[in-house]
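Q: Got a minute? One more chain.
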Amino acid sequence: MTHTELVKRLLAEQDLKYRDFHASLLPNIDKKTIIGVRVPTMRKIAKEFAASASPAELSRFLDKLPHRYFEENQVHLLVVEKIKDADECLRRIEQFLPYIDNWAVCDGKSPKALLKDPRRFYAKVCEWLESPEPYTVRFGVNMLMAFFLDARFTREQLKLVAAIDEKKFCDNPAGRLKCAASSKSAKTAVPTDRYYVQMVIAWYFATALAKQWAATFPYIKNRKLSPWIHAKTIQKACESYRITDEQKKILRALK
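A: Always. Here it is, folded:
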């Protein structure tokens, strides 16, 4: 399968109702760039593309940035996460990170090859957390959440994620839509990139409460997070089946 054939396959699987629904979840990107391919189908196509494309064709696809369609970007990282060579996987991730412009492409990726050297992986995550690019930061938090909340967990990681909210992020050169946080038109406001960073911080802390309660709870008890992230963390934690009823009762009392 070539890159051209990949795009044709994606276009052939277009579901306009799904596109409209998905576009509503991605208000900060141009709807015209969304084909509307359901996730299971897109994953299947990505797997077929990775298996059938020649190494040279795959390399051309991964190097041809930026892509036109949202689904091409999804396929891009779905292909990269399956690369077994740790050096090549990391190189391809870092090549692509500056082009991520939405939460959906950023989330749900699992580059397991990087676990071949956990120390180097963690060092890279720390670099990503320092980036001025919001979706590079979000990707880094996702990696901590996916790979470093169990046996590889340290309390330092909580401090690193908590400190992110103090960062100032640069505007995306591609011109993502922005809105002021104090917008009077909340119903029509487009979430800022900062919102998507704050959301993943809350998601991280809610997951950390489920997996590392003793280390994480003081951040809630002592209100170490900003008010919005504090409240959103409690909301997400209370929606989780991994948090006990007793823990939820404690959290709700700290809203």
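A: Confidence is low (pLDDT under 50) at residues 171-189.
Q: Perfect, thanks.
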